[in-house]
Amino acid sequence: MLASLLAAPGALLQPVARAAETAQSWYLKGFKLQQEFHTLEALEAYKHALALDPFHARAHYEIGWSYWILENWLEVVRHWELAQEAKLNVPDLSEYLAMARERMAGKLEPLERPPLHTRASGGGVTLELVARFQHYDPSPADAADHFDDHVFSPKSVQIAPDGARAYVQALEGRATIVYDAQALAKLSVIAHDFGPEQARLFDAAESAAWAPRFPQGEAPAAFNQYEGKPVEGVFTHGGRYLWVSHYRRSFDELGVLPSSVAIIDTRQGAIVRVMQSGPIPKFMAASPDGHWLAVVHWGDNTVGLIDIRGDDPAAFRHAGEIVVERRLPLELERKVNRDRYCGLCLRGAVFTADSRTLLVARMGGGGIAVLDVAARKHIGSVQGQKPTPRHLLLSRDGSMLYVGSNSSGYVATYRATELVAAAQAGTQRLKPLAEVRTGEGTRTIALSPDERLLFAAVNRGSKVLALDARSLTKLVEIPTDSFPVGLAVSPDGRRVWVTAQGYKLRGGNAVTVYDVTRAGG
């Protein structure tokens, strides 16, 4: 099969040594381009390599991954079969090839890729898909469907309080993508790539204090040189700063080491400081009084507190941690992927209106942990929600708590004061005021500015729901690109942004934007 390539039109039959050397340089160029998520440019480089050396097995393997991103399964299978025939030693190649063949044969459930201008209405609410930024179709038919090679595993989206910009956290892209939220156009890309030249972003004293937290031999001496994987973001100081959590440092394959959070100055459009954090800081919450930023550590059952008073990021300081039940030691079970074996798997969090109490969702084991911020103490946890509570929201006046549960696929409501009182009294279970089935994989939930609507991104259903926020009645649902995760509502309530991350190497790599209209304006 490989030999037939030598007779292919345009094949360059140069001396073996020269061809191999030239092919290798093109292969390395393609590999670097794909690492930077420039898929189309990477494809061209790999094609040059294969024109010069049709037997370059590694180029066949890597070009297969480039075609995987573009969902061109025929080319994926063709190149991986060639790599396999060349006896490329990649342990999982056979498994990946089988997956690609299934996709090519259409054996899996079709992915959802709704066309632009898809509309859905119900309960006086209409949603319309008006724009998309995606990394799978380089030649879209609609001008509002933008091919964007920085959109790689987008995890979350945040819209600035003034509504001017949207910030997408591209986890595997190791970047924050900045969009003009009004014109729906990309403005810039902020890389989370820290080398020696970025040393000024780290506080030396803070780094020295955190160094002992890295188990000996588990991290390089220069542990502040790495790529960070952005997960979530939260604005503080009236939108001046956007805090972005890093799922892990690039050298920490299993997610068991301390990670970090980056502070983006939205006026400069750049990272101005990086602070240390516990393992896998998936979520953050800012206190209403502007005193605290809570960093929720998925990896070890703790929540870190940062004092963010004042306007100078250099003055922000760690102010202790709160342990929920028990801290998972990093020195043990280091060979276990901590993203999966995460103990209580702490995720969403919100401060009460008085900033004294922090509520944290426990995806592992269920319940909502109630933390006394001043005492740095876990008061207790209250059960009663459907399994795997993930995302928490508080109404503007602090009275109503909304809980989105992931695997079970529910949204529920509680009176915040009753939930806190239950924890203080030692009550282990509290029935929600209302709850509704929204669909398996209910991830991010968000309120409209007037708090009349509640939106939910439903991962396994590949849809977005709009609910009546008071009764939790379903009003309308609309398809979105497969496997949505993040969601944000614009400050004027007229647009919803959704990120589709993907699931088990399928779907995702898309950001969709919906217009929201309501009867009577």
Please provide a written account of the structure.
By secondary structure, this protein is an alpha+beta fold. Among the domains are: 103 residues, Serine Threonine Protein Phosphatase 5, Tetratricopeptide repeat; 152 residues, no CATH class. Helix content is 17%, strand content 37%. It contains 7 helices and 31 strands. The strands form 7 sheets. Strands 1, 2, 3, 29, 30 and 31 form a 6-stranded mixed beta sheet that branches. A 5-stranded antiparallel beta sheet has the order 8-9-10-11-12. It has a 4-stranded antiparallel beta sheet with strand order 4-5-6-7, with no helix packed on it. Strand 11 and strand 12 form a beta hairpin. Helix 1 packs antiparallel against helix 2, helix 3 runs antiparallel to helix 4 and helix 4 packs antiparallel against helix 5. It is globular. 48% of the residues are buried.
Output the keywords.
521 residues, alpha+beta, Serine Threonine Protein Phosphatase 5, Tetratricopeptide repeat, six-stranded mixed beta sheet, five-stranded antiparallel beta sheet, 7 helices, 37% strand, disordered N terminus
Summarize it.
This protein is an alpha+beta fold. It has helices at 16-35, 39-52, 57-69, 73-85, 93-105, 204-210, 416-424; strands at 119-122, 125-134, 145-147, 154-159, 165-170, 175-180, 185-191, 193-194, 226-236, 241-249, 259-265, 270-277, 281-286, 292-297, 302-307, 317-323, 346-351, 357-362, 368-372, 377-382, 389-394, 400-405, 410-415, 434-437, 442-447, 453-458, 463-468, 474-479, 484-489, 495-500, 510-518. α1 (16-35) packs antiparallel against α2, α2 packs antiparallel against α3 (57-69) and α4 packs antiparallel against α5.
